[in-house]
Amino acid sequence: MTDNTRGETPRRRRITLARVALYGGVLAVAIGGVYLATRRDGAPSAAAAHAHGGTGTSRAGAQPVSLTADQSRRIGVTYAVATVGPVVKEVRTVGQVTYDETRLQAIAPKIDGWVERLYVNTTGQRVAVGQPLLTIYSPMLVQAQEELLLATRLARDVRAGSADVQRNASDLIESARRKLAYWDIARSDIAAVERSGQVQKTLTLHSPAAGYVIEKNVVAGQKIMAGEALYRVADLSAVWVEGEVFEQDLASVRLGQVVHADFQALPGDHRMGRVAWVAPTVNLESRTVRVRVVLPNGDLRLKPGMYATLRIAGAERAGVVTIPRDAVLSTGERNVVFVREASGRLAPREISVGVANDERIEVLRGLAAGETVVASATFLIDAESNLGKALGGMGDMPGMEVSKPPTPLPMKATSDNVPAQTHAGHAAP
What we know:
- By secondary structure, this protein is an alpha+beta fold.
- Helix content is 29%, strand content 33%.
- It has six helices and 20 strands.
- A hairpin with a 5-residue loop joins strand 17 and strand 18.
């Protein structure tokens, strides 16, 4: 029993070594086949690579595209001819509607006192010039009324006096009236005090401005001080739109330029204004300059805080080659168009561009007037072009066309009792 066990161990080792040698041989044959196949295909691949890189004006690596009429119609391809004509550069930016600062007004009393009643008591309330704001009790107003009534009685008492005395009495009355008027007491209220002959405990303060209350700092019963701003009123019949223009576009922006404004909150509501102010300094972080546009707002549809798209019309360039803006595919590093050749193929071509607006873009180099380019579905054509490049290059990759190595023939057992191999590569039982 012991002798048989010792005899089996060396035999199993020899079998294992033979299998390792067999697998190594199969691997060597496979590697050899790949090497020969790549040697055989190496020259055409190099020639093909040279041919792909030889297109001087085409986009690097991209392939021309051939489409049937049905394919073009299905993906929405349209064409446009490069023409010579004028083009106006537009500077686009995003702005925000804000108050016209020249139409803001703070309402502050000129006397100390206590608020007895508020007539305008909510933020956002609309007010008109002369509209009552509040009633106020003020010892200063009481004293001024008493002076007015005293001057009135004096004028009655000296009616029979000399002209100088009567003139002095009239001057005292006018002085008392002016004092109340300078404190923003309405002339009608002053006249009412004179008619009644009685001092009023409270008098009414009226609004000196028209607009909307955007800030309210007073409540009924509050003690107020002279010069304290109780309300801030904004006239919204005109508004400002302020935006940022990049430093490199500053040369195309000047005072008085026409500006087109569109608003996301008001689809179809297109308005026009003019550049009213350009900031004298550049923002050091964003490298932008602030610009201001004044827009009329008689219908009050423009509300402070709204976003707007501003298009500032720059100077016109005449006699330049232009194509539709959608015809240009910009990658960030280059600009590409697809030119329709005489054969009907669409060939990619790199161009240099100049000024642009929403519709047209100037071509500086790479395209001549009269040539036809793809005007829509450019992105799809570009994807097809690059797909052709990828598929065409796979055949040139080393080993892509290598055939499967042949299966090794079965091996018979040796004198060392190595079992024969089957076609599946497993040891025979």
